[in-house]
Amino acid sequence: MSKNKLALAVGSIVALASTNAFAEAAAESNKHDVFTWAAAAAGFAIGIGVLGGAMGQGRAVAAAVEGISRNPGAAGKIQMNMIIGLALIESLVLFSFLIAFLLQGKIVV
Question: Tens digit of pLDDT for each residue in 85-107?
């Protein structure tokens, strides 16, 4: 039990001492790092938004085509609902682009 307490004390001292040692060097290079990671995160967010939108649009069109092939008489209603759904999915993709663009511009250090 005393070995665990000693290891905890040594680990705490090392963790607390190391943060002070690197504080000044990190403050100088932090501005460039923040902008770099903000740009990378914005690009990643746009990619995830587009990926989800593309998968959703593909599944919607596949389901609509399958529904039309099963019931050709309802093609007009299915097509109308599909177009509305695709427009809503596309608006979500554009919304994710807008949010990523705004977040990248809001980083001020």
Answer: 999 998 988 888 888 777 777 65
Distances (CA, A) of 93 to 36, 53, 90: 23, 6, 5
- Asked if 45 and 96 touch (Cβ cutoff 8 Å), the reply is yes
Nearest CA to 65 out of 78, 84, 81, 46 is that of 78
Task: List, in order of start, the domains of the chain with CATH numbers.
Answer: 29-105 (1.20.20.10)
Q: Whose structure tokens read 């963790």?
A: 15
Closest CA to 108 of 46, 57, 38: 38
More confident of the two residues 23 and 75: 75
What number of helices (H) and strands (E) belong to the chain? Answer: 3, 0
Dihedral sign (CA 27, 32, 33, 35): positive
Residue 35's pLDDT band, with cuts at 50, 70 and 90, is confident
